[in-house]
Amino acid sequence: MSYKIEEKPLLKAKILTVFLKLADEKRNVDFQSESIDQLWAIKGVKEDHLFELSELGAIHFEMLGEDGFAPIIVAGITNNTHDQLLNCLAQLGNDSNLLEERITLL
User: Fold this and answer.
1) Fewest beta carbons less than 10 Å away: which of 55, 66, 76, 98?
2) Residue 30 lies in a domain
3) Quick check: 24 and 30 in contact, CB under 8 A?
4) What number of other Cβ atoms are within 10 A of residue 20's Cβ?
5) Residue 101 lies inside a defined structural domain of this protein
6) Could you tell me the pTM of the whole model?
7) What domain count does the chain have?
8) Residues 63-92: pLDDT tens digits?
9) DSSP state of 32
10) What are the counts of helices (DSSP H) followed by strands (DSSP E) for the chain?
11) Is 59 within 8 Å of 78 (Cβ atoms)?
């Protein structure tokens, strides 16, 4: 079963955190770097999630190339990356509070 990234705030937060950590001074993320393994080490992360986050404006991610050749990946953080991460953390905090309330009512 495939989930949209918006339905997985923890996964979204982890991806955005890695992008923020790996971004250079020009806000680019180098997918040729060994450090990118941190992104693929996140359980459940897929390229589709990166495309979704790019559509949301949370990151920039695109693959350029022709058939038969390895794609060139252009990726980086945007002006919205920090806000998107804060929204994820707020959503996770709200989810945690709701769960605590439910447990208390039991």
Assistant:
1) 66
2) yes
3) yes
4) 15
5) yes
6) 0.86
7) 1
8) 998 888 889 999 999 999 999 999 999 998
9) T
10) 4, 2
11) yes
Which residue type, as a one-letter code, is found at position 51?
F
Helix 81-105 with 9-22: angle, nearest 10 deg: 150
Instruction: Record the tokens describing residue 5, joined without a space.
Output: 């990234």
CA–CA distance, 97 with 19 (Å, rounded to integer)? 27
- Strands (E) across the chain are located at 59-64, 72-77
Q: Is residue 89 part of a domain?
A: yes
Domain containing 12 — which CATH number? 1.10.10
Distance of alpha carbon 105 from its chain centroid, rounded? 34
Task: Calculate mean pLDDT across residues 10-38.
Answer: 97
Distance CA 43, CA 11 (A): 8
Pick from 12, 76, 81: which is nearest to 42 by CA?
A: 12
- Token pair belonging to 38: 């941190």
Is 1 contained in some domain? no
Range of the structural domain that residue 55 is part of: 8-105
